[in-house]
Amino acid sequence: MGLAIATYGLLAAVGLTIRSRRSRGLPWGPWGWVHRGLGVALVLLVLLLLAIGIVGTLGHFGSLGHSPHLLAGLVVVTLTLGAALSGWSIGLGTDEDARSRHGAVVLLLGLALAWVGASGWIVVQKYL
User: Fold this and answer.
1) Which residues of the chain have pLDDT under 50?
2) How many CB atoms lie within 10 A of CB 53?
3) Three-state DSSP class for 23?
4) CB burial of residue 87 (10 Å; 0-12, 13-18, 19+)
5) Is 8 exposed, middle or buried (0-12, 13-18, 19+ CB in 10 A)?
6) In this predicted structure, what is the pLDDT of residue 63?
7) What local confidence, expressed as pLDDT, does residue 32 receive?
8) Rounded CA gap, 124 and 128, in Å?
9) pLDDT of residue 117
């Protein structure tokens, strides 16, 4: 989870760099590729964490839904995929609202990551 949060932070920093350069009319340089690569890494990390969580919970408890952590995780997965899709729309240039939608989804994702981190801490305490 810490790696996913760190990746989110790096994505935010690179995204703000791209936004700043864009607003000043400067070329992005390699930042676009870095942002896309980090985005792919975040999607893969979140899906891996989802799989680990489901397998671990089923193995330990035999069923899902013992805490709000499942809902928080599903919200994070949904928002991560939504951010990736809206980012893809920006790259295609076919959707004028994609950039503002991407920003809104990314901000919500940050809140959801905080929620899943807090609820996950409670779950980890059950295992210990």
Assistant:
1) none
2) 19
3) helix
4) buried
5) buried
6) 81
7) 92
8) 6
9) 93
